[in-house]
Fold this protein.
Amino acid sequence: MIAASEPTQRPPQARLLVVDCQGRIAHARRSALAEFLRPGDLLIANDAATLPASLRGVHLPTGASIEVRLAGRRSLAPEDVGFSAVVFGEGDFHMRTEDRPAPPIVSPGDTLALGPLQAGVERLLGHPRLVSLRFDGSADTVWSGLARHGRPIQYAHVPTPLALWDVWAPIAGLPAAFEPPSAGFALDWQTLANIRSRGAAFATITHAAGISSTGDAALDRLLPFDESYRISEATAAAIAAARSRGERIIAIGTTVVRSLEHAAIPGGVRSGHGLATGRIGAASQLSVVDAILSGTHEPGTSHYELLRAFTGDATLRHATEELDARAYRTHEFGDSVLIERSCFSAALL
Amino acid sequence: MQNGFHGLRVAVTGGTSGLGLALVREFLGRGARVAFVARGRKGIERVLREHPDAHGIVGDVGRKDDIYPIAMEIAGELGGLDVLVNNASDLGPVPLALLGDTACEDLERALSTNLLGPFRLTKALLGALAASSREGRGAVVLNVSSDAAINAYPGWGAYGASKAALHHLSRIWNEELAADGVRFLSLDPGDMDTPLHALAVPDADPATLKPPQTAAREMADVIASVLQGGTDDRFLSSVAPPL
């Protein structure tokens, strides 16, 4: 696969690799997504807008330049502006995260000047670079400071600075994600109309998608961090109704799988707020989601691990070979896969 | 007319004077959570002293680079959005001028504030509005229009052309987003006793003009009826006629 380096959410040539429940593989234009749906399917996307979660500033006790990447939050309430964050040293997204110099030693009580914002380090969260921050001022002061000073978190494979419009999908609503729930980049308003025309339904959850990489092996082993999410009563009701009719639940993105499976109850999901913990992988038993639309992922990443809950390793290897052979593009602005949960029992794989 | 706004999240652009300020007061009075946008920090602080529960946002909807920060603040501070009122308006040349005497820059500014600004801000907040609709709360965008959008008043070329385009944009958007449950209104508040009207017609007798709070009440009533009429398609199929 090759890295998608242009911040274009829906390039006309975007492609879709489809894996059906028997492990058969097909290739299509991604704009033809609706053709792979059945009447009655329920598609569920993550409608979180992406926070400008990268804040440049200074570690006041040492005067050192730092970058703070907000990474977690206890809830999605507007007045909750307490964040966990990863501290980076000098440099910016042009440098690969693993090549970035270490930040200064950060201790509880230290003050960080982040543009118009000032934040105190409350405590370390199990790693010298992972901290809990308390911003000075009212919640509105923090929102305003983030809106003006923050930039989208980005990585070296996209060389041009990202603007918020690059990372907000058309359906993006509540600013809550720390990195874009990029599977949703496939959806525009025309696609939603096509989904409706197909007789399929569309619903959303809001899930605070976290950061995907820190460049620090010990920190990366902790990913994904716990993520706040909210499932509306309307979405929970739509899921229960679809399941009772035996229709498919199709998750748009790994974050949707994470929240729906975390909120699973017999016959559907709990509505309301939750904090998704743990990882989904080969050993996970999916109880809500039947198929996933996702980006293309390299083996070894936590996103790839999640795909192993849907289908067998041999099928995924075959899919990866096809993605490589046909030069699919990867990362957040890349191509997509649609993988249906294997219809063979686990014992046969 | 029922109140209809309790707990709803409403954003108003141009919210520190004239109709915008009257709308902020009207929505707050009806129990809504209100964010308002204006260019000047001083004006925002003045309104916040009077209404400390409101959320004031500094930004110029006529500037492209301000749009996403404004949208982020609106959706962040209110926790989503149910009603967006694109009220901020630019008159074009002041004093009013015949089109032949209108500087291109004055027309560009009127289009930026009255047409491109509402388009950009609505587009940035469409996801939040559609989410509100999916949750059964309804979603309405009110674009403040003018009889100058319909009638060819000499001297009102820049303003009238920009408002005519906004009116048509509202109508098309209303058709396109009906299935997503986001409904668009384009309403003419009438000639009001506001700073904008004073700029346009300095010698008008205020006694002959509508108080902005009257227009604000009328507009809030229309929005409430659209929000409450889940199956009422009067406003789904076409934009309401100017008041």
Notes: The helical segments of chain B are 18-29, 41-50, 64-78, 104-134, 157-176, 195-200, 212-228, 234-237. The longest strand of chain B covers residues 33-38.
